[in-house]
Amino acid sequence: MCSTMHLVFLPQGQSAALADNNTASGRRIVLSYTCFRPHLYADDTQVYFSCRPFAVTDFQLRLSACVDDIAAWMLANRLQLNTGKNDLLWCVTSRRRHQLPTSALRIGSDLVKLSASVRDLGIYFDADLSMRCQIHKTVANCFAVLCQLRSIRRSVPTSVYHTLVVALVLSRLDFGNAVLVGLMAYLYNRLQSVLNAAARSIAGL
Question: What average pLDDT does this structure show over 107-130?
Fold first, then answer.
């Protein structure tokens, strides 16, 4: 099993120099717990860990201790951990889903409940990595935009309308499509339905 947790290290609007310094300090804290692997960004840190089902309880205790250390460091630097933006996701196959812990994770004085999916750099990941959530949201957003564009179909030239469809619809399909390799056929069919609808809209059908 693999756990992913998103921790906000900096409030938005900090300078780049301060962000670099704080992410480096946060990385040292996370790496002091040898079982964790951090991925750092300017104002966001993701902590990854894999373990056997029997080691879940020990993992949760370690992660809580790690976040406590991060929160203490932030407090010493006049920063505050935003627990409202923390997510916890267990990644596991469907057959082992019954082995997932159901208890919330303690983060300071707060409890973080398990998420069915998390948003990472604009892409939604499910607990079983099926990408159903990403497909559902992409398709829904694309059809919503197409509905809005149809209201101006007769008010703009075809070339302009074509450009709008490519920029506002097809670009959403292209975003992060590398993570969609190897999905089940019915999920690809849902994406294809967006392309078909876009083509009919451009053709005025």
Answer: 80
